[in-house]
Amino acid sequence: MVEIGNRYQINVKKFGYVNWIGFWTLYKKEVLRFLIVVIQTVISPLVTSLLFLLVLSLAIGNERGEVLGFPFLTFLAPGLIAMQVIQQAFSHSSSSIMIGKIQGNIVDILYAPLTAGEITLAINLAAFTRSFIIAIVSIVTFNFIIDMEFYNFFYIFIYTFLGSYILSSIGIIIGLWAEKFDHMASATNFIIVPLSFLSGTFYSIERLPSILKEISELNPFFYIIDGFRYGFLGVADGSIKFGLLYLILLSFVIWFISYFLFKKGYKIKS
Fold first, then answer.
1. Alpha-carbon gap, residue 224 to 248, rounded angstroms
2. Is residue 99 one of the residues assigned to a domain?
3. What is the percent of the chain with per-residue pLDDT over 70, rounded to a whole number?
4. Average pLDDT, stretch 12-24?
5. Which of 221, 249, 233 is nearest to 164 (CA)?
6. What is the DSSP letter of 61?
7. Does residue 128 lie in a domain region?
8. Which strand (E) or helix (H) includes residue 260?
9. Is the pLDDT of residue 150 over 50?
10. Angle subtended at Cα 139 by Cα 136 and Cα 144, rounded to the nearest 5 degrees
11. Is 192 contained in some domain?
12. Is residue 10 part of a domain?
C-alpha cells in the first residue's frame, strides 16, 4: 500500500511544467475537427471571398479610382482574405466550446490532466492553423484572378497570427458565455460582422468623416486588416508600429480573460 501510495500521489504533476503530450493531443484533435469538414471550414470562406470580389468587380470595376495608389481590386483582395481569417478563427474556437457544452463532451477536456492555459492555447493554435490554411489557399487562388502585390511575408504571417489569436480568444469567451447557438449567432451578427465591415476592408478610412475615422482607429479589426494589407501593398492607412504593439498587448489581455474564465469554470462547472 505504501508503494502504491508513493507511486500515485494526488495533486502531483507527472508531466513536467507543461503537459506537451496532452497539449499536442488536444491541438491535433482540434485540427482534425475542421479538416474532416474541409469544404465547410476552408473552401466555404474562400468561396465567400470570391463572391465579394466578383460582385464588387462587376458593380464597381474600373470605375473606382485607385486606393492608396493601387487599383481597387488589388487593394480589396487582402482585406477580403483578412476578414475571412479573423471570422473563421472566431468561429473555430467558439463552436469548439459551444459544441462541447451542448454535447457534454467538454468534460473530456476538463478531466484531462491539462491546465486552463494549455487548453486555451491549444484551441488558439488550432484556430490559427485553420486561419493560416485559409489565408494560403485564398492568396494562391486570388493570385490567379487578379494581379496580387507582395511586399513583406513577415507582416502577412504576423498579422494572420495576431488576428486569429485575438479572435480565437474572443471566441472562447463567447463560447463560454453562450448557452445556446442563438446567443453565439447574436455575438457574431452584432459584434464580429459589424467590426469587420467597419475596419477598412472595402475602403480607406481616410474617406470617412473625422469622428468615424477616430472610432475606426480604436477598432482592433482595423489594425489587423490594415497590417495584413501592408504585407501585400507596402502602404497602410494607420501606423504599423502602433497597430502591432496595440494588437500584441490586446492579444495578451483577451487571452488572459479567456484563460481566467476557463480556469474558473464559467458556465461549464456547476
1. 11
2. yes
3. 92
4. 78
5. 221
6. G
7. yes
8. helix 240-264
9. yes
10. 130
11. yes
12. no
